[in-house]
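sanity check this record:
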Amino acid sequence: PPPPAAAAEGKDCKVAPRQIVWRNVILMALLHSGALYSFLLIPKAHLYTLIWAYMCFLVCALGVTAGAHRLWSHRSYKARLPLRIFLAAANSMAFQNDIFEWARDHRVHHKYSETDADPHNAQRGFFFSHIGWLFVRKHRDVIEKGKKLDLSDLLEDPVVLFQRKYYKSSVVLMCFVIPTVVPWYFWGESIWNSYFLASILRYTIALNVSWLVNSAAHMYGNRPYDKSINPRQNSFVTFGAIGEGFHNYHHTFPFDYSASELGLKFNPTTWFIDLMFWLGLVTERKQTTKEMIKARKERTGDGTS
């Protein structure tokens, strides 16, 4: 809960003091210091180790984009059990809170975007929406609004409940042990290089790429679908976050499984979901019609394409 001073000052998030979580500050400082050191190891590492680190990045990214985000937060498509198990494991590799908590906070973010109930309210500035929100206790509005959401679909999914119950052990295994052991065991990479490159550096980059969706994609770019909201189309974020940078579209049509207009758009997450559909592991992909998109652009867009 917020300190008495914050309660006395009401809901003005720009002046209300926050209780700093020093543990998170210290851990993130150590993590980013380790990531910076990791760059020095790249010239000494085996090429396979770098390829493996990138593969781990793609897997953990899908655990967030195709899993926690598009499947469990927005229910934009349905996935069969084998795919849900894979996405839950990939989500543990991403280490960004368990699926239940991630989806709950993301639903609050959409329903109360850019208010005190938004966990990473971009109105508080780039630093806060990028990483600063992790350095302070959640605003009381985030907690109160989150409790009022219907999360029954998450509680009815045994995969979500299993991952939540064993989250810590699954994170240790998926985020740190497997990425480190594979290069050491299969092609003789040193444990030191494996740990810092495939675990620490990969994890830090994946975190910052995800955070850019909350920060840069809410501040920089055009708004062809709805100029009245903050989220923007950001090509840089799209490339890094494998398709999550079409953010003005996504906040306008959050139910769309592609989170963007289809066509020649760069959206690896959509390609993955389409592949799973072709394999029979995905059903009921929700999509915005061309007529709806055109009408919305004409009514509320900023005139850009």
In short: Residues 22-221 form one domain. The mean pLDDT is 93. The first helix runs from residue 4 to 8.
